[in-house]
Amino acid sequence: MTPATHSTLFPQVPETADAVLDGLDPEQREVALALHGPVCVLAGAGTGKTRAITHRIAYGVRAGILPPASVLAVTFTNRAAGEMRGRLRQLGAGGVQARTFHSAALRQLQYFWPKAVGGELPRLLERKIQLVADAAARCRIRLDRNELRDVTSEIEWAKVTQTVPADYPAAVAKSLRDAPRDPAEISQVYAMYEQLKRDRDVIDFEDVLLLTVAILQDRHDIADQIRRQYQHFVVDEYQDVSPLQQRLLDLWLGERDTLCVVGDASQTIYSFTGATPDHLLNFRTRHPDATVVKLVRDYRSTPQVVHLANGLLGQARGRAAEHRLELVSQRDPGPEPVYTEYADEPAEAEGTARRVRDLIAAGVPAGEIAVLYRINAQSEVYEQALADAGVPYQLRGAERFFDREEVRKAGVALRGAARAGGNDALLDDVEDLPAQVRAVLSSTGWTAQPPTGSGAVRDRWESLAALVRLAEDFARAKPGATLSDLVAELDERAAAQHAPTVQGVTLASLHAAKGLEWDAVFLVGLAEGMMPITYAKTDEQVEEERRLLYVGVTRARVHLTLSWALSRSPGGRASRRPTRFLQGLRPGSGALGTGGAFGARGGVERGAGGAGSPVRRGRRGPARCRVCGATLTEAGEMKLMRCEDCPSDMDEGLYERLREWRAGQARELGQPAYCVFTDKTLMAIAERVPDSGGELAAIPGVGARKLDRFGADVLAICAGEERGGSDDEA
């Protein structure tokens, strides 16, 4: 036992290797003990994946199986790498290298460059945007600041997908990617950018990986030296690996398979940067002998939040959806998610601010509350609403609305037009205030129609469009207001929001919220056109939007509120609809459509040929009704294995006995009845009357965990025995 005087801020290092395993759940323990051969950990949100892999490394080191200097753990952010190093030190496994891909590659490149190439490594370019601007100028292509950011992002995407300049247009067409400019122009700028780097003897961050790959491919002696140093690899967030990072990992490994990867295909939300879940999804194909461990015990969120998260994935389509994990909450029950419909966006922001203030008054710390939205341009109305409500806030991953360059430039233009009055040519023949604002902002990049695609150009347009909407709302609220009045209003808002704030409510985009969690989360703006975003055109793009909402839902520990507005501004036409992703999940939205049963529950699968290997099943065909033979598509029908309209041979008495038993179990566990078994599962059991564990396990909705926990009771009831509601007998 840890002494009572020992501070939890400085946890005591486990005394033995076996002590490292204390406190792990069965699946996490399997991860920690799987020290040989390829290992794939499929880890759902909140299931303790970092805990599992750090304890795996620490156990291997403390048991003398993994020399600490031979282990390289790689992840994607410096924050995650630092957290991993800290945990390993606390577990007595200092000396293990935990780095980002770029950090590990740069270290190797700096060491081996003199030997492989000679001389000093070229200077690392911290920011490439100026060099891209120079390349565009050499090509006589005009790019404004936001287009520069977008073209720079395209060059980064091309490099991590190992696409050379000449192949860029074809690669864009093949990937159905929305290029911010003519692909031929971007290809030209990309080629000139590469030439300028060579001329100026500099490299960028993508080159760090590319050059390391090139050296390891060409110099087998250097590759062998690195492989002697690092013999065991752990990769976190494996669903975000790019083709270039996978190539580097393959070269680090050589012919070995001493690799442990951790990921969740349902949290793939960065495909626009070149990340792909294919390497995670294909891991078992590439490594048939792999041990696969599925972590589904959710320690973060309440059963109510987890139920919604599972429901979102239950409707998913595509390859990633086939590998979705059904989470099982380990927390006490909490409040149901709140769904709120507002008349317009300002009302949604004000209502959210009121609910935030109420939570703070009820004892939830402001720092444990987040308001999450799809794009950064949505932040302004929430910044204003929270400021008006006296609630401190902080922005994450974005500048404050009035600090954005395009907003500051728009303010200068509006202020100049207000001073010029009727002498500004832009305002000739323009009468009402909103029209004046649109005319002025048209000179700074605003257009009546949004630009196609995403990226910085779209973000800039959204910011300017927010100013146009604000002008329309201001004119409606104050008839007769002038451009000078609007400028004064903007100055007041900017001044109020630039005031220093203490730690407060987090405002962040859904992308910026990845990897974080809060006691209370507000998911706002969940209307069609924003979720999924209007420029998500292909099926895969729409599915990534669904995964983005799933990430948002799984950030909440206890309180979750989802909201949308029927119109943009007060008095507007209520033409918006709530996001399709909540169809069948929010009250009053009809039956739940589903993409089929969940692809993965908790547990361990051994590689082919290993001890205890499961019998491999062939590919499943479509589910068919056992009465009429029709193909089944609805989740409830597949659970019953018959159409809803087909006659049932259910034993009504058995069904009622099962319901009574379930009610007792639910009381004993302190959970809703459906957490034991759903009504549909009980109906299926009463129809089939299983007399063995195998027959019971074959019924959808039972699964290994519930079979272990409730199987004996259910089989006894089916056999005519009486069983009470207590879990003790089971």
Could you give a short description of this structure?
With 730 residues, the protein is an alpha/beta fold. The strands form four sheets. A seven-stranded mixed beta sheet has the order 3-2-6-7-1-8-17, sandwiched between helices. A six-stranded parallel beta sheet has the order 11-16-15-12-14-13, with helices on both faces. The longest helix has 22 residues, at 456-477.
Q: Based on CA inertia axes, which overall geometry fits?
A: globular
Indicate the proportion of strand residues. 5-15%
Q: What share of residues is helical? A: 40-55%
Work out the radius of gyration: 29 Å
Structure description:
By secondary structure, the chain is α/β, with parallel strands linked by helices. It is 44% helix and 11% strand. It is built from 27 helices and 17 strands. Strands 3-2-6-7-1-8-17 form a seven-stranded mixed sheet, sandwiched between helices. β6 (232-235), α12 (243-253) and β7 (259-263) form a beta-alpha-beta unit. α2 packs across α3 (49-62) and α19 packs antiparallel against α20. Mean pLDDT is 83; it is low at 1-10, 496-502, 593-597, 608-622 and 726-730.
